[in-house]
Amino acid sequence: MPLVLSLLLVACGSLIPSGHQKVEVSQWKGGDYILDPDHASLIFSINHLGFSNYIGRFNDLDASLEFDPEKPEQAHLFATVMIDSLDVNNPPFSQELKGSNWFNAKEFPSAYFESTEIRIIDEKQATMTGNLTLKGTTKPVVFEVSFNGGADNLLTGKYTLGFAARGTIKRSDFGISFLVPAIGDEVELQISAEFLKI
User: Fold this and answer.
1) Is the distance from CB of 146 to CB of 47 less than 8 angstroms?
2) What is the pLDDT of residues 3-20, one digit of tens each?
């Protein structure tokens, strides 16, 4: 069975041309989009005692996107992150991070982000400002966004847009100041996402 599966994956891969996406945002299809949760990730990185950057992720994400290629600066994004999906590849520590000293997932089960301003830099990148609500506090956050491309996805049969984004927040701004400064205050966020046209 593994051999058959491998052959099928190789066959599918040969059907997908490299570089078939339209990278230029003006060539994308407008409309309403939803996040493909199977092809989305939110990774965070934080300094640990000056020795290393500690990496974690959230596994349960949802988002919607409204997009017009003629007015990309008016695009609107709304995203939800389920705090209980936090994953640092260490189950006991993941549970500790969900506790009251850190994210307090019981009282604040979700984080939200809603875009408020998009500034197009060129056909392949933009800055997106929005309001992040985390642990009951709302603050503005800026992300540097890269446009990976838009195209019909030959595996799903759906038109897909791909993005990557990076931003930095101060966790103390959101009431998560436990062990600052030994554990870094600044948290780098790295996002990769595919959106499916409805």
Assistant:
1) no
2) 554 544 544 554 555 566
> In Å, how far are 41, 61, 151, 181 from 38, measured between CA atoms?
9, 10, 17, 35
Mean pLDDT of the chain: 91
Low-confidence winner among 7-21, 74-88, 109-123, 181-195 (lowest mean pLDDT): 7-21
Spatial separation of the C-alpha atoms in residues 56 and 45, rounded to whole Å: 7
Query: Measured between alpha carbons, how far is 59 from 56 in angstroms, rounded to an integer?
Result: 10
Instruction: Report whether pLDDT(115) > 90.
Output: yes
149 Cβ contact list (under 8 Å, min separation 6)? 21, 22, 23, 161, 162
How many other C-beta atoms are found inside a 10 Å radius of the C-beta of residue 140? 12
Q: Under a CB-based contact definition with an 8 Å cutoff, are residues 81 and 60 in contact?
A: yes
Q: Which amino acid is at 46?
A: I
How far is Cα 46 from Cα 75, in angstroms, rounded to an integer? Answer: 30
What's the number of CA atoms in the CB half-sphere (13 Å) around residue 190?
Answer: 7
The pair of structure tokens assigned to 159 is 């038109």
**Digit-coded pLDDT (tens) for 68-93:** 999 999 999 999 999 999 999 999 99
Say how many CA atoms lie within 13 Å of 88 toward its Cβ: 16
